[in-house]
Amino acid sequence: MSVKYIPVQWNRNKWLYDAVMLAGVGLFLYIFLNLTPEILDHERAINPQVHNARAFGACAFTMMTVILCIGPLARLDDRFLPLLYNRRHFGVMTVFVALTHAAYIVDWYFAFSRSNKYEALLFSNTSYGQLVGFPFEVFGIFALLVLIILATTSHDFWMKFLSPPVWKRVHYLIYPAYLSVVAHVSFGILQDQQNHAFTVLFVGGAVSVGLLHLMAALKERQRDRDLAVDGADWFDVADASEFEDGFAKVRLLPNGERVAVYLMDGKLSAISNACAHQNGPLGEGRVISCLVTCPWHGFQYDVRNGQSPAPFTEKVPTYNLRMRGTTVQVDPQANPPGTPVDPVSLGMKEAT
Fold it and tell me: Bridge partners of 252?
């Protein structure tokens, strides 16, 4: 597959993913709107417009929470990887839910203002110097704008146009957007809420996101320590007996990059562990006919030269290998992306 073409075609798994997602959204809204009046127990009766707005707002927050939990869950346990593959669909759906929430708010709270309702939204409350009564709307507006930007740029065209590193940095905006939603809720409904149902939902979601990211970061730090290398010119990857045909050993290099060393038919080749598409972990893919398939979105590379098969044009850096006794070693200086390198046979031993 390639970013030059349609990278991920619609398939059964994608349809199933989206169907489950839509069913989950529908179930959440149905429960919130029809089965929770006693749980919510509003201090004052609210009209259907406000109730609808809160339902869609709570749903959008829950969806953002799930989205931000998928990444660390996939790093903690590979079984969550299928949820990661189509996460962008989840994000686009979240935008529509958030826009519906915003529409209910604007069309109720500001529709009867003498000024334009959008101007009233921005300027009806400017008490930025106090906590109680702080204009929490600005946090929601910021988060909504970020979600729209991320949904608009989610297509692979923008990744190709901006380059994967820039695209990835842009999509890190999801974190300040999530914090803004937390602030939006904290300064808004939670200050006026007598029942603790909302409090449990929002605090529990925010804490879950933070804890999962912390756990994933600690796991990766420990893995990096286990892979840490010394200052030699060539670095040990593993003993030849530790390799399994068709799979890779991943090694952390001093510059922070990771190299994936593959064994295929008794010969070793090494390429960057980062896919050119979304920096997916190529080392977790299996080699078939010299091609490794990225487990995230199916991009393929020839491990002997780091090139995608024609007509695709993606390339990743390659690395030189050598044998020192029975130990496989890698040169930490990467070759330019797409550079062919002759595979090293496990039977080749360099004289010491």
Answer: 258
pLDDT at 61: 93
Write the CB contacts of 112 (distance below 8 Å, at least 6 apart in sequence): none
As a whole number of angstroms, the distance between CA 282 and CA 247 comes to 10
Question: How confident is the model over 196-215, as pLDDT tens digits?
Answer: 667 777 888 889 999 999 99
Neighbour-count burial for 128-163, b at 16+ CB within 10 Å, e otherwise: eeeeeebbbbbbbbbbbebbeebbebbebebbbeee
Residue ranges of E strands in 210-253:
235-239, 248-252
* DSSP at 35: I
CA distance 99 to 88: 17
Residue 159, both tokens: 């990744």
User: pLDDT tens across 82-134, in order?
Assistant: 788 778 889 999 999 999 999 998 888 777 767 787 777 777 777 777 777 77
CB atoms within 10 A of CB 89: 15
pLDDT at 199: 75
Residue ranges with strand state E in the chain = 235-239, 248-252, 258-264, 267-272, 287-288, 291-293, 300-302, 318-319, 321-324, 327-330, 344-345
pLDDT at 280: 83
> What residues pair up with 319 in beta bridges, in sequence order?
270
